[in-house]
Amino acid sequence: MEATSDSLFERIGGMDAVDTAVDIFYEKITADPLIDHFFTDIDMGKQSTKLKSFLAYAFGAPIEYTGKEMHEAHAHMKIQEEHFDAVAGHLSNTLQELKLDPEIIREIMAIAAGTKADIVNT
């Protein structure tokens, strides 16, 4: 897959933007008592690398994603709608903090919303 100048990946600023967003996002996630327990025994360096790769791919980067499918990656967790909503809120806040264009934020949030059925499992 080749990224074009109008791919979401390019419009947000490429890998540097993905890296920055994921770093800020995980700071927010791991500080939230509603959801921090999901990350207690997780190597956050590896987790961050996985998410960066997935997001770059999902946003149209010219890379191949080889990680687990969303359903498979989250099946062992007891994720409720309130957990998903908290994560989505942190994502939205991160994107706003980075001062991304509101249309780009809507596009990213739509992608995130599209994963809800694969992640919420209780």
Features:
122 residues, mainly alpha, Globin-like, 61% helix
Q: What's a concise summary of this model?
A:
61% of the residues lie in helices and 0% in strands.
Verbal overview:
There is one protein chain. By secondary structure, the chain is mainly alpha-helical. It has one domain (about 10-120): Globins (Globin-like, Orthogonal Bundle). It is about 60% helix and about 0% strand. The protein has seven helices and no strands. The chain has helices at about 10, 15-30, 45-60, 70-75, 80-95, 100-115, 115-120. Helix 2 (about 15-30) crosses helix 3 (about 45-60), helix 2 (about 15-30) crosses helix 5 (about 80-95) and helix 5 packs antiparallel against helix 6 (about 100-115).
Helices and strands in order, then pairings?
Elements (H helix, E strand, L loop, with lengths): L7 H5 L1 H17 L13 H15 L11 H5 L6 H17 L4 H12 L2 H4 L3
